[in-house]
Amino acid sequence: MRKTALLVSTALLTALLPLAVAQAVDDPPPTPVDRFEGEVPFASQPAEGIFTWGGDSDDPPTLQLTARPDAPEGGKVLTGTYDISGYGGFTHDFAANEPAHDWSAHKGIRFWWDGQDNDKKIAFEIKDGGANGEASELWTTSFTDDFTGWKQVEIPFTDFVYRTDYQPVGGIDHVLGLTQMWGYSVTLPVGVKGRFAMDDVELYGKADQSLRASVTTDAAVYPVKEGGTATVRVTLATTGSAPVADPVTVTYETTGGTADPGKDYTPVTGTLTFPAGTASGATRTIHVPTLRDKSAEAAETIPLKLTVTGAKPPAETPQVVIDAHGLPYLDGKLPVRKRVADLVSRMSLAEKAGQMTQAERGAVGDGGDIATYDLGSLLSGGGSTPTPNTPEAWAKMIDGFQLRAQATRFQIPLIYGVDAVHGHNNLVGATIMPHNIGLGATRDPRLARRTGAVTASEVRATGVPWDFAPCLCVSRDERWGRSYESFGEDPALVESMETIIQGLQGPADGRELKDNDKVLATAKHFVGDGGTEYGSSTTGTYTIDQGVTKVTRQQLEAVHLAPYRTAVDRGIGTVMPSYSSLDILGDGQGPVKMHARADMINGVLKGRMGFDGFVISDWNAIDQLPGDYSSHVRTSVNAGVDMMMVPYSYKDFTAQLVAEVQAGRVSERRIDDAVSRILTQKFRLGLFEKPYADTSGAPAIGSAAHRAVARQAAAESQVLLKNANGVLPLKKNQKVYVAGSNADDLGNQTGGWTVTWQGASGTHTQGTTILAGMRKDGDVTYSKDASAPTAGYDVGVVVVGETPYAEGVGDVGNGHDLQLSAADRAAVDKVCAAMKCAVLIVSGRPQLIGDRLGEIDGLVASWLPGTEGDGVADVLYGKRPFTGQLPVTWPRSEAQLPINVGDPAYDPQFPYGWGLTTLTKVPEGGAATLKALAVAAAVAEKKGADDVGRALVTKARLIVQQKAGTGMTEAVAKPFADADHLSLTGRYGAAVEKLITAYRAV
């Protein structure tokens, strides 16, 4: 029995009385969901229970059942405390091994909440359909904690909307059925320390037909050419597809908008009726005829007002849009420059601000704000995907957003961007390439271009025309969590691999950007992101990412700016500044955030280098600038950032940018420059003519031909560091014992930025693990932890390394180090003590292996090879030779870091450029042969015969490596590494001379 009358305050009693009076006589009694008296335990699937969750270890709230004398129901309430930086909350799941609950008889769900009056929104979700609470559809709404003390929060089921930013499974039916419910969850506020108390979750009220029946239109926007007729389809849908019990009527009329009735269109009014007994899915049509007036015009809107009885109405009023026509910017025969100038001259300040704004897809829901705020761009952050995560769903989602843009005055298409940093990595089933560090190890610019071409074709086939790649960082400290996003530590190597830009974009003049297999590329992160000093980061618990790069002007030019000169020459379409700060020694400015460095963005990039694309900010990066928000906006725009990635604060940004211009703190000329740069790329991409997805290339996504490119890249990326006694390649007749954490884990093999931002261990996409590839070629036995007996095998292969991470989350010192795990070390020790062994290190950066190098016969740096483990097996079994070379220096200890080619003191475990080969005979003749190679290389250099020159250097390198073995000294390592740098810069004769120096020092 309720204790309310005895224990609550007079004020609360006053609040309760109307509730009792208001309850209708024929309403069903409330149905308890949670009383918090201990009847539901703290537990998780498959049992019924309450459990917490969060973005990291600090985010889940603390929960307990607390006896409270003021409990609205019973003696206890659910209480908790929280301090959430990412996301966090709690869930009550019903038991998965029992039938789901039927909530369809009720009007809604309600609960008591102990208000803290903090004005924070609290998301409340219910779980509908599917297999269980963690495999159901999420429907969400929210309430605001703007009160003090206990308050009963009532939420009608009609308030819940389908979550578009995250779903745990593929789409089930996108209908809130209420007949198979699996519980609820609460998402607590971010960025504030808080506490809460909750009591008595229950179902209330009587359901009416509008909860089970809804009226929808087939679109929110209906573009039509002037003089054409728009056809609006109105559909009746019901839960469980049951016929409606009562009639549903839809009264319609054209009213409002920017089009003139009688001049631009013929007004229509009427009523549609769905009689009782009408089946779910029944459709009626409304026709809206438009009229010709022969004048050139911007687009005009005709809202179609729908009034529904007997069912839930559409979420918004559909709009017919008469397409813009006759204006010069729409003429595809005009030069892009003239089209841009015409369009910019017609736009309002608000429309221009919208073009400079990029929002996250999850923030705009179904996309109504696209037209409201004239948004120019959307993106998918890492792991932000449609449900289901298929090529078809991507294209449908983006087409839906592009349709929204057609409701704007000038129908400027969106430019949609994704981080496709090693293939279309957000898409399940896409071809996932090795990360850039592996591509750098291939030393194969032609292959890099092919990987870019495969990526571009798969990305564009899903409707995405813009890729936030490649990363042109020059990684100078492998403690950086983004090391694997770099092609290497040598700017010459990074420059050589920028052929990937042509794979993505096509020729430098941009003439192929409109093709259905090309995307706009992004050079990031300008400038110096790979040079941040360890311990300089001020972002959360990061240690190096987003920190400070301290360099002389000469170092900045030679190391970090060099790749951007190449990118501009290659016609890169966009550039993204770095989160990090740049401290140019001697300039008197100290560390300045890159998004504020007008001298570098306006001065160097746009001015001196002549970059004519546009600059896009990083995710919420302007929030890291000093000062208030107006200062953030003003400083970044005036520094040369043209489009701002403000995922969830796009409304604030557009309003503030307009205010800054109106106040004279940002010039209209600067705005016009930014908008002109953005529109230029949209025209070059052909988006005005073809804004919607061309999915003709979708059948090739994840195809055998595309995976063959990824397989070759995986094979060429493998760097053979040691090969004592010819342990590799393996022979088909050998009995092979395979162990290690990364032998059969596709998630570890693909790393971060795969399906989700951070990536994950396990199988989350389609591909072949290293173990699966090996099983196709030989006699293989697998024991992950090496617990199976080791007797009777010819050779062991132990595949170890890292688990996935991305960005500063992976910084050394932020929960990570460069040591193998205890389990990996134990597996190496056991297998290598029992038989000849080869150790493969699957990782985003070098791992410290020196203390075990003596017991290992073969050592391979496998990097993060992507989905095609067959490529790794190809070199292990000799189908392809090992040809990879170290793109970064392999240190002896963490104390040596940072260590890079060209350092005055240089004594690594393995030098930059090191890489043994198989299936290739090392030239004989020692010093004499080297001398002859030096002469020939000098001749090739003089003639500009690059392929010949590189081949001669490779022969000399193999001679030196054979003699050096594992007895590496500083006298050998330094000239050896220098030789690889010289070769990359075309100085082949000098490279061989350095190798001769290394040979003599062995």
From TrEMBL:
Keyword presence, Glycoprotein: no
Keyword line: Calcium, Glycosidase, Hydrolase, Repeat, Signal
EC number: 3.2.1.21
Residue ranges of every copy of the Calx-beta domain listed in the record: 202-307
Leader sequence segment: 1-24
EC main group: hydrolase
Family named by the database record: Belongs to the glycosyl hydrolase 3 family.
Protein's recorded name: beta-glucosidase
